[in-house]
Amino acid sequence: MFERLVKARADVERNVRKLQEAQKKYDAAVERLKEVEKTEILELVTAQKMTPEELAEFLGMGEVKLPTVADSANKDTVQAEKEKVSAWSKTESATNEDLDVEETEDNTDENY
């Protein structure tokens, strides 16, 4: 009797899993990109035989504040905020699964 509803829920669950996997791949790719960018920048600076201070002066940044222990604490705070957002999005995803709405492939593209 509720075959369409069961099928629609199964589609949503399958798509949520695919979305989560894609998000993990995306996050890993972004991290790899950041590491490659850092390496490239470091290689360029090293090739020019510049110190960090010389680079900052060259870029017109004047005196640059070097990272401190307080900066590390801020990094932990940022990570905690990212975890909160991640937890919220998982909760939101679970809430959306409870909806009794039948989706088609044509409608899913409009949300992106």
Number of helices: 4
Poorly predicted residue ranges = 99-112
Number of domains: 1
Strand content: under 5%
The SS-based structural class is mainly alpha
Largest sheet: none
Distance between the termini: 33 Å
Count of DSSP E strands?
0
SSE order in H/E notation?
A: HHHH
Task: Give the overall silhouette.
Answer: elongated
Cα-atom radius of gyration: 23 Å
Helical proportion, percent range: over 70%
Mean pLDDT: 77
How would you describe the overall organization of this protein?
The protein is mainly α and 112 residues long. The chain is 76% helix and 0% strand. The protein is elongated, with a radius of gyration of 23 Å.
In short:
The protein has 112 residues and is an all-alpha fold.
Compile the SSE list and pairings.
Elements: H1 3-47, H2 52-58, H3 69-97, H4 105-108
